[in-house]
Write a structure and sequence with these properties.
- It contains ten helices and ten strands.
- By secondary structure, the chain is an alpha+beta fold.
- It has three domains: about 120 residues, Butyryl-Coa Dehydrogenase, subunit A, domain 1 (Orthogonal Bundle); about 110 residues, Butyryl-CoA Dehydrogenase, subunit A, domain 2 (Beta Barrel), CATH 2.40.110; about 150 residues, Butyryl-CoA Dehydrogenase, subunit A, domain 3 (Up-down Bundle), CATH 1.20.140.
- A four-stranded mixed β-sheet has the order 1-4-5-8. It has a four-stranded antiparallel β-sheet with strand order 2-3-7-6, covered by helices on one side. A two-stranded antiparallel ribbon has the order 9-10.
- A hairpin with a 2-residue loop joins strand 2 and strand 3.
- Helix 4 runs antiparallel to helix 6 and helix 8 runs antiparallel to helix 9.
- The mean pLDDT is about 95.
Length: about 375
Amino acid sequence: MDFALTEEQRLIRETARDVADGFIAPRAAEADHLRKFPEEQMRKLAELGFCGILVPESLGGAGLGNLELTLVVEEVNRACASTGVTLSVHNSLCSGPILRFGSESQKKRYLPRLARGEIWGAYALSEPGSGSDAAALACRAVRKGDRYFLTGTKRFITTGGRAGVIVLMARTDTSHKQKGISTFLVEPAFKGFSVGRKDEKMGIRGSETVDLVLEDCEVPAENRLGDEGQGFTIAMNTLDGGRIGIAAQAIGISQACLDSSIKYAKERHQFGQPIADFQAIQWKLADMAAAIHAARLLMWRAAWLRDRGEPHTTEAAMAKLVASQAANRIAKDAVQVFGGAGYTCEFPVERFFRDARITELYEGTTEVQRLVIARSLLK
């Protein structure tokens, strides 16, 4: 798999692997069990420059691309999916659109702080009444002079309660569905902003997921990202990058499942021999490895295309579809390799199993990815 990577990219991956193994993995079970936000883990990643991977060096970032981001996100997720999704959202769903669509003043105001880990980033598109049908969002933004007043509720917002800036979509024109949406950079200190309920989740329990409540939330007009009516375009472009990030998450979880399964299969003895000697186990391991390698190549291609500025919506959807489905199959098989022990909290595969499930749901469900791919084939 290394044939496509430069020496610099290999070094980035090795650095991410070292911090994942040495610092993040030992804290993963605690983050999951206590539902503890991975503050220490994120600060460590910020020290290494991993919170500003896409941010130019001139703004305090690493000045790297989406391919490098997938290398880091995969390794972090192999250790802890809660930390991994927090890092992915911070880079791809918050810093990414500010970099692509922000004004120079917006970039200077937010990107250096995001890169340093001084503030965390979030992305707010989903609402109680709109998920897969993102263009149906109801949150309203009414302009009065030099301010917009936002009213509505955002749902399932990763890091929403801890973010220093949130890329948020709201409706500025009710006469158009997609073209009536605009994007805003919202800070928690803005009048009328509050954090609603916090979700209790099956997996990625260390990642904070909340509602955001906007009650005539006052947002300066200078905090509109892009033009009025450009919000849906910004949202979909951002999700292309986010889906590559979730593919990386899924692959990281899958790799953790395979690594754990290999180790356990060599150590666990039944009928006088390691269970790794049984063909039934060997075939599971072989299928896991093949699926991981295939998904990783799809992900790398999508990231490569995005870095080149070429169309990649279909490739991003393919990468997420294949990687997330593989992660759920692989996590299920990993629990099976461990047998009854895999159903207990003694081994991490039960956490991997729970964490894997979300990868088929957020940033576009499996069904939505199929729709995206099918439309590209039939247009």
